[in-house]
Amino acid sequence: MSMNKNSIFGWASFLLFLVGAALVLLGVLKYKDYAIGFSVTGIGFFFISWVFNALKGRV
After folding, report:
1. Measured in whole angstroms, how far is the alpha carbon of residue 11 from the centre of its chain?
2. What InterPro entries does this protein map onto (predicted)?
3. CA-to-CA distance for 59 and 52, rounded, in angstroms?
4. Packing angle between helix 35-55 and helix 5-25, nearest 10 degrees?
């Protein structure tokens, strides 16, 4: 299976989404004192993931 540009953008967006979800969950469930920082950073990862997904097929 060959990795082209679209599959690389797809995997990158999936992995960024997983990291963002992990950060949000860590902030909400484990580190309640720092929940705002973790959540804002996780939402930033969600936005980067969305941009990578939007770039599939355009670059």
Report:
1. 11
2. CAL67264-like
3. 10
4. 170
Q: pLDDT per residue over 1-48, tens digit each?
A: 688 888 888 999 999 999 999 999 999 999 999 999 999 999 999 999
Tell me how far CA of residue 59 lies from CA of 5, 34, 40, 56, in angstroms: 8, 37, 28, 7
Dist. CA 12–CA 56, nearest whole Å? 11
Residue 44 amino acid letter: G
Radius of gyration of the chain (CA): 14
Which residue is listed with tokens 């992995």? 15
Find, among 48, 52, 53, 51, the residue nearest to 19 by Cα.
48
